[in-house]
């Protein structure tokens, strides 16, 4: 079985509801890409259906083995299809029709929907209907990077579990087991992995991430003075980056502003982006606390907007003008 590192609270919850046999029909699992949502969902599907009288999942009964080998007839995994960006309403209609069948061998039929944030609004509305009137012996595990990308009505119909973020030291230890990259690279990817081991592993495979990190560091250096939109665009040009790159760049900015805000508050903390403490302190003296909060929130909003197909050019332009407006004291 794939090892589940930390996430004790979520596992305890799953053990409790499995033992009580009062399993909710919809569970939403929220966590960054690579934070282990799918592993946890499969583990839970095994736990519910395991035949063992002892610790579940046992990993050796016929149900556990079939789930592990991905051949269990009652466990369905739904995801964005290759080459597509969304999960269409037709896919949800198929789920609804399958959900009305009684399980062929399992105790509960389990539908794991990966990348729930990619469900179209129409698909989410269809899903909501079945969440409201769920068939017997069906459990939906809806995985998402951010619950705000789901309809609030969907979220309120389910139990929300958040993936627990891993401490730096644990991610570092795991990465070092499988990589010979230098410590500085490892530190850099940990800094932007947001506590997600999978994301850190992905990032460590490429060199591009380190280039993007350098870009963000150069951008923060410009904030030591009070920059114009023009000087910001010179570092971070709206024409030079693709959407995929922005998925890495904006979290760097987000964690950077978080660090600066915490630095200004005088709290004791471990920086998530900055390795150059002097630069972080210098910027914290240049920008007011309220503006730092605004910058963090705006960057977070832009991160989210990338999922709803906002044009990368527009995202960068908006970001630069916002930073130029708020990177000051008053
Ligand atoms: Zn078992």
Q: What is the terminal separation in angstroms?
A: 55 Å
Write down the CATH class of the largest domain. Answer: Alpha Beta
The main sheet orders its strands as 2-3-4-1-5
Tally of discrete structural domains: 2
Rounded to the nearest angstrom, the radius of gyration is 22 Å
CATH topology of the largest domain: Rossmann fold
**SSE string:** HEHHEHEHEHEHHHHHHHHH
Instruction: Spell out which ligands are present.
Output: zinc ion
Instruction: List how many beta strands DSSP finds.
Output: 5
Fraction of residues in H or I helices: 40-55%
Superfamily (CATH H level) name of the largest domain:
P-loop containing nucleotide triphosphate hydrolases
Mean pLDDT: 90
Biggest sheet architecture:
5 strands, parallel
Instruction: Tell the overall outline.
Output: elongated
Task: State the secondary-structure class.
Answer: alpha/beta
CATH architectural name of the largest domain: 3-Layer(aba) Sandwich
Strand fraction equals 5-15%
Count, helices = 15
* Weakly predicted, low-confidence segments: none
List the helices and strands and how they pair.
Elements: H1 8-20, E1 26-30, H2 37-49, H3 62-68, E2 75-78, H4 89-99, E3 109-113, H5 121-132, E4 138-144, H6 152-156, E5 159-162, H7 168-178, H8 183-192, H9 197-205, H10 208-222, H11 229-235, H12 243-265, H13 277-286, H14 289-305, H15 312-326
Parallel strand pairs: 1-4, 1-5, 2-3, 3-4
Helix pairs in contact: 1-2, 2-3, 4-5, 7-8, 8-9, 10-12, 12-13, 12-14, 14-15
The protein binds zinc ion.
Residues 50-52, 57-58, 61, 63-64 line the site of zinc ion.
């Amino acid at each position: 079985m794939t090892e589940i590192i930390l996430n004790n609270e979520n596992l305890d919850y799953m053990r409790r509801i499995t033992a009580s046999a009062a399993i909710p029909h919809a569970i939403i699992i929220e966590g960054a890409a690579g934070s282990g949502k799918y592993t946890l969902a499969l583990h839970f599907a095994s736990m519910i259906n395991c035949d063992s009288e002892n610790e579940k999942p046992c990993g050796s009964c016929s149900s556990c083995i079939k789930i592990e080998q991905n051949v269990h007839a009652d466990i369905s995994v739904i995801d964005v299809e290759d080459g597509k960006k969304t999960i269409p309403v037709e896919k949800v209609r198929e789920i609804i029709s399958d959900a009305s069948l009684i399980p062929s061998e399992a105790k509960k039929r389990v539908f794991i929907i990966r990348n729930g944030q990619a469900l179209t609004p129409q698909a989410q509305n269809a899903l909501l209907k079945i969440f409201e009137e769920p068939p017997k012996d069906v459990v939906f595990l809806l995985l998402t990077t951010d619950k705000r990308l789901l309809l609030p009505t969907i979220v309120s119909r389910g139990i929300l579990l958040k993936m627990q973020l891993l401490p730096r030291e644990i991610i570092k230890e795991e990465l070092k087991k499988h990589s010979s990259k230098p410590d500085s690279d490892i530190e850099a990817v940990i800094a932007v992995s947001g506590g997600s081991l999978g994301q850190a592993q992905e990032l460590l495979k490429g060199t591009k991430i380190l280039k993007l990190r350098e870009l963000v560091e150069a951008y923060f250096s410009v904030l030591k003075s009070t920059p114009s939109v023009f000087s910001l665009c010179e570092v971070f040009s709206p024409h030079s980056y693709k959407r995929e790159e922005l998925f890495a760049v904006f979290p760097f900015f987000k964690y950077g502003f978080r660090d600066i805000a915490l630095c200004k508050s005088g709290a004791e903390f471990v920086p998530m982006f900055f390795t150059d403490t002097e630069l972080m302190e210098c910027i914290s003296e240049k920008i007011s606390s309220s503006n730092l909060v605004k910058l963090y929130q705006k960057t977070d909003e832009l991160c989210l907007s990338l999922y709803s197909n906002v044009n990368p050019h527009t995202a960068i332009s908006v970001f630069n003008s916002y930073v130029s407006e708020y990177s000051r004291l008053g």
